[in-house]
């Protein structure tokens, strides 16, 4: 089942929320391979990101699914409902043409996030189908990458 969590902002610099989309296995963040991904849970990341968004006058809508189709549907929804997209598609980054195609339709900023440095890991993780349609890529900075992605999107929106 997909998880939705909405936080609102006090002084909006973005009238639409930034969608934060997390793919497979990120629901187990903090439990799964903590030596690679750290001990912060997805709930911790979402809480921190919502607080940072509020401080910056924005809001986030955090969604996670282990199902590729849910991610595609949310990306399509973002076309009209979001100011930008932060996406950590997990393993789908390396396999999903469907997610690539959905992101290619967006005319809002998209930042791809990976908690680990995918280039220091197995070779199959070195290629992302998302990177070619993303505004930017942040990898290897742990969960801090989500906040950096939010700041980048808000800077782009306020240009």
Fold and architecture overview:
This protein is α/β, with parallel strands linked by helices and 159 residues long. It has five helices and six strands. The chain has a six-stranded mixed sheet, with helices on both faces. Strand 4, helix 4 (97-104) and strand 5 form a beta-alpha-beta unit. The radius of gyration is 14 Å and the shape is globular. The N and C termini lie far apart (37 Å).
Short description:
The protein is an alpha/beta fold and 159 residues long. Helix content is 34%, strand content 18%.
β-sheet strand percentage: 15-25%
Order of helices and strands: EEHHEHEHEEH
The oligomeric state of the chains shown is single chain
How would you classify the helix and strand content by structural class? alpha/beta
Strand order of the largest sheet: 1-3-2-4-5-6
Fill in the keyword field for this structure.
159 residues, alpha/beta, six-stranded mixed sheet, 5 helices, 18% strand
Write the layout of secondary structure elements.
Blueprint: E1 3-7, E2 18-22, H1 34-37, H2 42-55, E3 60-64, H3 68-81, E4 84-88, H4 97-104, E5 110-114, E6 136-139, H5 144-157
Parallel strand pairs: 2-3, 2-4, 4-5, 5-6
Antiparallel strand pairs: 1-3
Helix pairs in contact: 2-5, 3-4
